[in-house]
Amino acid sequence: MSSNGDSAPRSVENAHALVLAAAKDMLRKGLTEGTAGNISARLPNGNIVITPSSVDYDLMTLDDLVIIDLDGKTVTGDRGPSSEKALHIACYKAFPDVGSVIHAHPVFATMFAVAHQNIPACIDEFSIYCGGEVAVTDYAMSGTDGVGDNAVAVMNGRSAALLANHGTVAVGANPGKALHVTALIERSAQIVWGAKALGPIHELPEKVNQQFAGIYSYLRQNPM
Known about the structure:
The chain is α+β, with helices and mostly antiparallel strands and 224 residues long. The protein has helices at 15-28, 85-94, 107-115, 124-130, 145-154, 175-198, 206-221; strands spanning 38-42, 48-50, 66-68, 74-76, 100-104, 160-163, 167-172.
């Protein structure tokens, strides 16, 4: 995964509204259930707006969102921030070009995470927007710093990772982009899972993946 170099970390305008909209869309798309999963965005001042812990997405409002700093301390908000705040913070610290982080529990992608199997790059779109094969992290208990550390370790050149025995994490320039990656991971996982039932799967040629890596890097730095 590339970064902004010496430029300021990427932030998101209208972040609160975009986080809330993506959270509700995540539930509508079936990428999580109940109050599981969490979404955040980086604010222009460097703080993070994040979904609260244990609030139903259908009922969630802008007032429920919490602002935390990069040490995980609450700046504003009446509710507690997501229990996975350390995962979000790790991604923001590691990748200055990240404006939003989404942790979700999509069924097929989580199947790969439970089986400790990477999702291979078999589809053009997957390689272009995810950067190539999406890897499974080492296991760490939910809510610990290890979840974020392990995710960052496998996300170089990628927009996502599979959290072992847990779910997914995806990053993007804004919540909409991160949600697109999350949905693409789930769709690709379902396709690969089904293709394995038909016989051996065939990954994209390495030369093609290398070409797509250039497109991925460009889109990463120049989100549309």
